Amino acid sequence: MHIYGKNVAKETLNSDTIVKRILLEKSFNDKEVLELINKKNIDIIYKEKRELDHLINGIHQGIVLEIKDFVYTDINDVYNKENAFVIILDHIEDPHNLGAIIRTSEAAGVDRIVITKDRCCDVNATVMKTSAGALSKIKVSMVTNLSSTMKALKKNGFWIIGTDMNGTDYKKIDYKGKIAIVIGSEGTGMSRIVKEECDFISEIPMKGKVNSLNASVAAGIIIFEAASRR
Known about the structure:
The protein is an alpha/beta fold. The protein folds into 2 domains: about 1-65, CATH 3.30.1330.30; about 75-230, SPOUT methyltransferase, trefoil knot domain (Alpha/beta knot, 3-Layer(aba) Sandwich). Helix content is about 35%, strand content about 25%. It has 8 helices and 10 strands. It has helices at about 5-15, 30-40, 50-55, 95-110, 125-130, 145-155, 190-195, 215-230, and strands at about 1-5, 20-25, 45, 65, 85-90, 110-115, 140-145, 160-170, 180-185, 200-205. The strands form 2 sheets. Strands 7-6-5-9-8-10 form a 6-stranded parallel β-sheet. Strand 2, helix 2 and strand 3 (about 45) form a beta-alpha-beta unit. The longest helix is centred in the last third of the chain and has 15 residues, at about 215-230. The protein is elongated. The protein starts with a strand and ends with a helix. The relative contact order is 0.16.
């Protein structure tokens, strides 16, 4: 997998992530990044800007790291964690939304993010870039069946809190203990089956004429509300 950008590079080089090689634009001169590369003794391949532009569909800032594909964590190890705080993403397809939610979750102290194998963006280079290094500090699990996973969470003492336009004011929900908050997809929100598995439905009251928020914005509001009350 190729990841790119100065902030991602700094976070990655300061972590235990194994970097196979680094592609640098010939004019790259960020001293902090170069010092980190030298400490890691990683091979550098210098490229012209147009070569990196051709390789990366995004703003690479003159640096591209080649690493192993992202490794997902088995969901089972979170079931027995005391007061675990989990975020479930019900078919989030935009990598920028996924990256932003991961960044928010890490900042709020979330223990685990759960995504689905089908109809959901996986952890790719864009997600890595948008998360600004948060992926090196938070665990992500990929599951095949979200409904079954939610049932398993509930059997292990979790309360499942869904998010929808018709529910209880999010500020009146009890977020203590072992909880999992579900964030629905960008277009249709939570699927019917997922919604049926929720113990509570939380709603962000809207005062304007717009009746919905971007998935990552809504996630940020509820995640930090939950974090502040735990």
